[in-house]
Amino acid sequence: MPSSDEPLSHNPFWKGVFAGEQPQMRRGRHFFRLLSGGDVPRCHYCLAPFAGFGAPIARAVGRGPWRRSHSLCNQCETVLRTQPGGTEVEMAMLFADVRGSTQMAAGMSPIEYGTLMHRFYRAATKVFMANDAIIDKMVGDEVIGLFSVGVSGDDYVRSAALAGQEMLRATGHGEPGGPWLSIGVGVHTGVVFAGSLVAESGAYEMVALGDPMNFTSRLVGAAQGGELVMSDAVWSHVADEIPAQPRTLTLKGYEQPVTAHVTRVD
After folding, report:
1. In the predicted model, is pLDDT for residue 35 greater than 80?
2. DSSP for 62-112?
3. Listed ranges 43-47, 91-95, 201-205; the one with the highest mean pLDDT
4. What's the average model confidence in pLDDT over 261-266?
5. What is the pLDDT averaged over residues 207-215?
6. What pLDDT score was predicted for residue 207?
7. What pLDDT, on the 0 to 100 scale, is given for residue 243?
8. Among 44-58, 157-171, 250-264, which is the least confidently predicted range?
9. pLDDT value of residue 47
């Protein structure tokens, strides 16, 4: 284990993980491909089935879906625990924040507010899993999903933008009666350091770090309730699918204004 002041290493293992080409996590593919026929959800790496007649067998050998991404099984995730460090990789990031959460919490009992956030987390989990994201964080009034080639497929940026729309719909935006929870969503893509950090105690945390994460946080901070705010880098992937209006934003910590693209759902 590296000491606390030792720099993070570029571990080639993680390059393979995020490219979907990690041999250690592709073992058993032939067997698991045969185990369940048809188009069933599977681990992106070993092909362990999460549905169909083969799913109980896969679960029995520890290959049920990982709780943070239904694109990976539990067994493949345990491989990640053995590999400290990480790599620089292009990812798309989705941040979703509750609007007015401080005032909302002040007007509710703790259990009422907790129940509402529980519903929010469950809605986000469903959206993230359906779009092959990794759940990075669910804390307080914010959820974060990560999308990469190895986990989410070649169209991972598009998947992140579509997931942003689904997050708005999942919280009732676009419904005649209005949302049951007002949220804003920010989506960006860029090169981050992604991998695992291991504390002296042995605790393990999969992370994505770098300016793109900070930038996405600023984008979601600029989103009003019911808005999906996309960076230029994301918009270029979905301009033909998602109607949006350009908006010039001045983001805290960034000297120059940036152009983002803002949309709502019907």
Report:
1. no
2. T-SEETTEEEEEHHHHHHHHT--EEEEEEEEEEEEEETTHHHHHHTS-HHH
3. 91-95
4. 95
5. 94
6. 83
7. 94
8. 44-58
9. 83
Q: How far, in Å, CA of 60 to CA of 236, rounded?
A: 43
Question: From 1.10.472.10, 3.80.10.10, 3.40.50.300, 3.30.70.1230, which CATH number describes the 86-263 domain?
Answer: 3.30.70.1230
Supply the DSSP symbol for 25: G
Q: Percent helix, strand, coil in the chain (nearest 5)? A: 35, 25, 35
What pLDDT score does 1 carry? 44
Its pTM stands at: 0.85
Which residues on adjacent β-strands are paired with residue 144? 95, 137
Q: How far apart are CA 214 and CA 164, in angstroms?
A: 17
Q: What SS3 state is found at 140?
A: coil
E strand spans, the chain: 65-66, 69-73, 85-98, 134-139, 142-147, 183-198, 204-209, 228-231, 245-249, 258-263
Phi, psi of 209 (to 5 degrees): -135, 150
Residues of CATH 3.30.70.1230 domain(s) within the chain?
A: 86-263
Half-sphere exposure of 187 (CA within 13 A, CB side): 32
The pLDDT value given to residue 23: 64
> Distance between CA 175 and CA 172 in Å, rounded?
6
| DSSP code at position 210 | S
DSSP code of residue 176: T
Which residue type occupies 73?
C
From residue 179, give the alpha-carbon distance in Å to each of 59, 119, 219: 37, 13, 21
